[in-house]
Write a structure and sequence with these properties.
2 domains; 6 strands; globular; four-stranded antiparallel beta sheet
């Protein structure tokens, strides 16, 4: 894990039920409450500690501009009045994030990709992404004896 690249994309790869309470709490703090949910996390010492706890239950990677762009355009939803709203119009973004200088979808994408000064507000506005399940399903691991 490198602290030089301060942004990670996380995806929950397993159910939150049936795991220890500590792992469940960390997954909830990372906003990964369902299987195949994804979110962005700013890397710092605290988030790296949380990632080490939930490492067996998830996948992650460093996002680039193209992947952030595709995720937000295809699966991006915002939280407006505690409801999940599809990001179809820039006025929705300006209404919620205009006070932070984020007025359109491109500003939102740039803020997430560059981990700017308003990353926290932009990321909290984004609803966790619902990813599709892998083609062919999940591979079952043999039991360890």
């Amino acid at each position: 894990m490198h602290l030089q690249d301060p942004n990670w994309h996380l995806s929950s790869g397993s159910e939150i039920n049936g795991v220890s309470p500590k792992v469940r709490k960390v997954l909830q703090r990372l906003r990964l409450r369902q299987i195949f949910n994804g979110t962005f996390v700013k890397l710092n010492k605290a988030s790296i500690t949380m990632l080490r706890i939930v490492e067996p239950y998830m996948a992650w990677g460093y996002p680039n501009l193209k992947s952030v762009n595709e995720l937000i355009y295809k699966r991006g939803d915002g939280e407006i009045n505690k409801k999940r709203i599809a990001l179809t119009d820039n006025s929705l973004i300006a209404q919620s994030l205009g006070k932070f200088g984020i007025i359109c979808l491109e500003d939102l994408i740039l803020e997430i990709e560059t981990v700017g000064k308003r990353f926290k507000e932009a990321n909290n506005f984004l609803w966790p992404f619902k990813r599709s399940s892998p083609r062919g399903g999940m591979k079952k691991k043999p039991p360890i004896l």
